[in-house]
Amino acid sequence: CHRLGAESSCVLVVRVRESQHSTRVTLSSTDCYIVHEIYNGENAQDQFEYELEQALEAQYKYIVIEPTRIGDETARWITVGNCLHKTAVLAGTTCLFTPLALPVDYSHYISLPAGVLSMACCTLYGISWQFDPCCKYQVEYDAYKLSRLPLHTLTSSTPVVLVRKDDLHRKRLHNTIALAALVYCVKKIYELYAV
């Protein structure tokens, strides 16, 4: 695993690499980055955030975040983005399929608010998350995949492990559904108020 930062951390990199070879972890040097919890001065939290930002921009396959505070904040940020994505998809699907399931006179009471919610979540995701490098990552919980990482070298017992995933299809899905919901809502509002 790599570690960016001061020269004092280079010794740690060598130890991590040595332990990788001795435990036969099959990760290349570009697969994993560890943000270690090493307090060097009073700006340690800023250093952790800088290291995480550099690792995200370098697009490592796995990023292990040892500092608890920044790990928890990152996991929450990813969870909120996931929630916005799922809400946009589910609300948009509800908007589009409610008219098929309910009588025409009542369907707009559910489909219009669901469509507005879908568009709002999609817009918020697009503004706040779409260009954030963190949106390309998910928190890894799979024990098998975690066992392949050099977690035994960490001082923290509860690191947050991020795995890079392609989110292109996910973005296309919620953008398409939200756009279809927008078209439906505009059409339905026109029908309701034009008559």
UniProtKB/TrEMBL annotation:
Subcellular location: Mitochondrion inner membrane
Membrane topology (UniProt): Multi-pass membrane protein
GO cellular component, one term: mitochondrial inner membrane
One Pfam assignment: Mito_morph_reg
Keywords for this protein: Membrane, Mitochondrion, Mitochondrion inner membrane, Transmembrane, Transmembrane helix
GO biological process: mitochondrion organization
UniProt-listed PANTHER family: PROTEIN PM1 (PTHR15099), TRANSMEMBRANE PROTEIN 11, MITOCHONDRIAL (PTHR15099:SF2)
Family as reported in the entry's similarity comment: Belongs to the TMEM11 family.
Function: Plays a role in mitochondrial morphogenesis.
Name the record gives this protein: Transmembrane protein 11
Native source species: Gallus gallus
